Amino acid sequence: FEIPLVKNNLVSLAVGPSYGFYHLKHDLPIAYNNDITTFGDLTDQGYFGDRKLVGNQIGIPLELRLRTKGWRHFKIHLGGKIAYQINLFEKARFEQNNELIKEKYKSADDVQRLVYAAHIRLGIRNFALYGSYNFSPFYSNSASTQLHLLQLGLTVSLF
Questions:
Q1: Which of 19, 55, 115, 131 could form a disulfide with 83 if both were Cys (CB 3.0 to 4.6 A apart)?
Q2: CA distances from 7 to 16, 24, 41, 75, 129 (A)
């Protein structure tokens, strides 16, 4: 929802609900040990084929939107969000003894539930380049592998 702050809507605030889904492909086996989650070494455990880290989150983003006048306006959106990590799990598909095995691991006890991130959008009219960085890591234990989500992309605004 956009809230204009000045005449001609050149500066505004935007707030509203959001849903995030991601599929992160990786090659390293994940070791779950009590409250510690670490990414293993390929030499220790071998290559396990196709592995994905999958997550879902809901949140509330807040943006400050700046734009120039006119139909072909230039825009800058600066924002952040606070979100709740609904789930985070690993899917693996690998061969063992000439048999294809598919597994889903929901074993991480130290999943960081509170997510906070910053983002920026730079563009012209309906198209913009997008970048986002999660300041909170995927796992809450400081002994766990510290992964932060970085997203880059292109956004298309329909309105």
A1: 115
A2: 22, 43, 57, 16, 26
Both tokens of 16, joined, read 């509203």
**Does residue 54 contact residue 30 with C-beta atoms inside 8 Å?**
no
Candidates 6, 151, 146; CA nearest to 64 is 6
Is-contact 116 80, C-beta < 8 A? yes
- Residue type (1 letter), 99: E
DSSP-assigned letter for residue 44: H
Q: What is the pLDDT of residues 35-93, one digit of tens each?
A: 888 887 655 555 557 888 999 999 999 999 999 998 889 999 999 999 999 999 988 88
Q: Are 73 and 124 in contact (CB under 8 A)?
A: yes
The answer to whether residues 158 and 130 touch, using CB atoms and an 8 Å cutoff, is no
Distance CA 152, CA 19 (A): 17
